Every structure is written in structure tokens, then in C-alpha cells.
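Good morning N.,

You mentioned wanting to compare the apo and holo forms, so I went ahead and generated the holo version with aspartic acid. This is what I fed in:
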Amino acid sequence: MKRTHHCGQLNLEHRGQEIVLNGWVNKWRDHGGLIFIDLRDRYGVTQIVFNPQVDSKAYETAKALRAEDVIAVKGIVKERPSEAVNPKMSTGAIELYVHELEILNKAKTTPFEINDLVEVSEELRLKYRYLDLRRQKLQQNLITRSHVCKLVSDFFHSHDFVEIETPFLMKSTPEGARDFLVPSRNFPGRFYALPQSPQTYKQLLMIAGFDKYFQIVKCFRDEDLRKDRQPEFTQIDVEMSFVDEEDVIDISSRLIKQLFKNIVGFDVALPIKRLSFQEAFETYGNDKPDLRFEMPIVTLNEVFHDSDFNVFRSVIENEGRVASVVVQPADGFSRKKIDKLTDRAKSLGAKGLAYLIYSGGEFKGSVAKFLSENELKTLSSKLALRENSLILIVADKYDVAYSVLGQLRLEIAQELNLIKADRYEFVWIVDFPLLEFSKEENRYVARHHPFTSPKADQISLLEEHPEKVLARAYDLVVNGNEIAGGSIRNHRRDLQSKMFEILKISKKEAEAKFGFLLNALEYGAPPHGGIAFGLDRLVMILTGAESIRDVIAFPKTSSALSLMDGAPSEVSEEQLAELKLKIG
Ligand code: ASP
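and this is what came out, ligand included:
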């Protein structure tokens, strides 16, 4: 009883044919002497009918079938009576009248119903992931993921890229996140690390002369998990020689255009717009702006620099920012609601939230009485105020003012349903600062990674004003998600060594950790750069899934557990002894 067709295939053209289907019992119902079963496989669902008049043995056996039993059926395809036609199903015009049934395997009652509409706790879903994966939505997500990988691979091959695998067991060189370590049995006390990304390898491949490399590759980061992060995740990793930012941005944009066209039928207009890091931060409060709605942040320092209102003036005098977003119309923003927004602003780190309501040509609100007529007039024209607007103002340190307003902007837009769900708004963020100061470590750390090159005309600033140096780095953002990031690298040893110096990585430490790369840079390293896309997040956006767990076959929980097989698990004394490890 090997199948002749699959469960999503049959239609009126097959009328009268004898065919065999294999699949899972999706739904079972007894309609007064006839048994109807929806038979399911990856391709779809076919309604099969057991009629005692057609075959009493098959009918009797079918009585005992239960959801998720695996069966083989042979029967004749018939047209459904017109009232039973289901235009929503690809097989909705036919049904199969069964005259032979074989049970291939019985199923225990599953811990939850296999149905996209049934609400099940995520814990249970993850424990029985193989059952959860029977649900159509998850199957579709993974099938789309597979299409995406094929498109990516075809795209890069057609542009002459070479696909090369890099090791999973590598040297531990933590910088940024923590490494996952693998003890070496042959060399007790020594460890491999799982790659956080193939960064150093892909640079070595450029030095080796491969010119264009790509790989769809697993990466591992032992971070304290934040929501919707996985300890292992997949990147589309890319590196190119003799290129500058424009080349990497161009090929990446074209890849994205292909993917969105093929997977969701969306035309990405090229070139994708760009924003400098500073513009993005001062207009949207972060470096991954959601551009599906407006509500930009507007800086008001100019308006208030001479103000009699001490709160604003003193912030400006101390190099802070007075910045605003306008919500229009202001309907529904009661005093109570504004108080809540104020609490939210404070919880995000702001000292407070001032507001004005502009209505009937007049200003009301917490700070209206402190502001001069002239200031209000300038404000009104600067913000191009329309009737019935709410102006939210944060006066605070530079970072706080913009980041708090950026977060409020997002939350208000979500609440007011301003975000157009069917749009994809792409933007490249460029001109990132090369470094950021880490208070915990009391040193500068690389914003992207230590191999990123500073802009050529700013190298001289590295010693005196490291904070001012911009990087040759770029991120691609869609709808508020960072989906790719990369940079042009330091291809000369002297510049790379200088970077380590600025990062307070001693010569000795640099040699111990990255000596292999530093040496390689001395043997004719070409100028090179690249990028990596987060495949999980990209597929999440393309499928409209709510979490990256929904596009990963066997994901971990947010505490990095695999509920299905119980990893991480304890190991035997013998295993530990072999590795010369002791649990303290
Ligand atoms: N390796 C970098 C990362 O994992 C990406 C890149 O610079 O190409 O973020």
C-alpha cells in the first residue's frame, strides 16, 4: 500500500481513478453510518470516506481509528456532492471512497490536539516538539525557511561566491559574548570553543584569495538570554575582497530584494534608503528604527536655549537635549493616561515627561504656563502643529532624551495601531561610532567587533578622541529589526594592532588570542569586508511568525534548555574522568 499520490494533490481530474494515500488521521467523524476522515500529510488534507456498502471490513476497522493514527488507504476518487464542496481546500472538490485500509501505526492520545487554532502552553509544545511540528503553520514556516536557504544559495552561487565550511571547534577568543567551551580529551585542561561567528575564518579565506565567500552557518553565544534569543542561531555569512561599503551594501540589498519578491511578493525599491547612526538616534531614539509610521522625534534646543523656564534651559546649558514627539490627534490622552506615560518615561530612565496640548489655537498642559508666547509660536511652527495635538517632551541627557522618546514613540504607535502590518520598510544605518565606552570594563569596546576598520580620514583621531571616530560599518534594518550587520575590516596589521591597543588589549593578549590573524595580515591581506544576516530573524519576518522559536525546528527555551531531550544534562563519572574534569 505505497502511496500513489499525496494528500494535497487530488482534484476533479482524478475522478474515477483508484489511488493510494498514506498519512495521519487528522479528524474522524461518524455521520450516521458513514465515517469521514481528514487524512493529512505535509502536502495537505484529503477527505476519505468509509461506507459499509463499499467495504465492510475497511468500515469496521475505520471505526476504531483515532487522531494521529498512521494509515494507508486505497479507494476511488469521487466528486463531492455540491453542498459538500469546500473551495478553501485544494482537494475540496473530491473525496476518496475507501475499499482497503491498513493501519501502519497506532498513535497514543497526543498531549494536545494537532491544530493551529488550539492554544497550548509553549512548554508542552517544546517538550513534544515533533508533534508541534505536525501543525500546518510550523511546517509552513520551516518549508519557507528551506526556500529562503535555497534562494540565498542560488543567489550567491550565481554571483560567483564560493561556499566554504569553517570549523565548529575553534580557539576561544571571547570578545563581546561568552564562548561555549568544549573540553579536549587529548589535551586535558585545554578547550575548544564553538564559534560566535566565523569572523576570523572568513577573513583568513580572503587572505587565502577566495575573493567571495558565503556560508549559511550556525553560531553559538553563551549569553544571558534575552527574550527571543537563542544560544545557537544561524547566519548567512558573507565576505568579499577588494570591496568597499558600497559593494557589500549593493549585493546585500539585491539579495534582500530577491528574497522578499520570491517569498512574500513584495517589491523592495532599490536603492534602500540610508540614515546615519546619529540621524537615526536623534529622530527615532535607536539604531533600528521602525519606519512604518512617522512620529519623528524633534529636537527643541533651538527653541528653548534662552528660555526663562529653568528646567529646559539648564538641561540645554549642560549639553542635554529638549526633545519631543507629537501625537495627533490627541483624543483619548486623558490626564490619567498622560500620568501613565510619565511613569513609563521614568521607568525608562527619564527624570520626567512634560506635555502640551495644542487645541483651538491654545496651549494647555504641564509646562504651558512656563513658556513664553514667542517660544510657543516658534514651537508651533517648528513642529508644524495641527489642531488637537499632544506634544510629549523629555528634557534630559542626550542619550536619555532620545532613547526614552524613541521607546514611547513605539509603544504609542502600537497602542494606536499606527503600524501598518503589511509593509516592509528597509533602511541601512551607516556611520556608526567605532567604539563605545564600557563603564563596567572602564575601557572602550568595539561597537561592532575589533576587526572593523575606522573611516580612513579619522584614523588620526583614534588616540585623542576615540569616541569621535566613525566605523566603516553598516546595519540593515526592516520594520524595527536589525537583520544584518557588517563592516569593512582592518586589512593591515599596523591598523589592527592599533585597534587592539585602543581597546586596551595588551600586545601579549592580542598575540595570544589573535596572533594567527595578525600574522596572516602580514602576508598580503587584500582589502576586504563583509556582512552577516540573521537567518532566523529574517525568516521570522518573511513568515510573519511572532517568535524566532517558530522558525527553528528544535529551539531552546529562553533559559537555553531543550525541553524535548533534556539538554543540557549531566554526564557520567567516566566521561568526566576521561576529560579530567571535576564538578566543583
Ligand atoms: N561576524 C559579524 C557578526 O557576527 C558580522 C560581520 O561583520 O560580517 O555580527
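The first strand starts at residue 18 and ends at 31.

Happy to go through it together on a call whenever suits you.

Best,
F.
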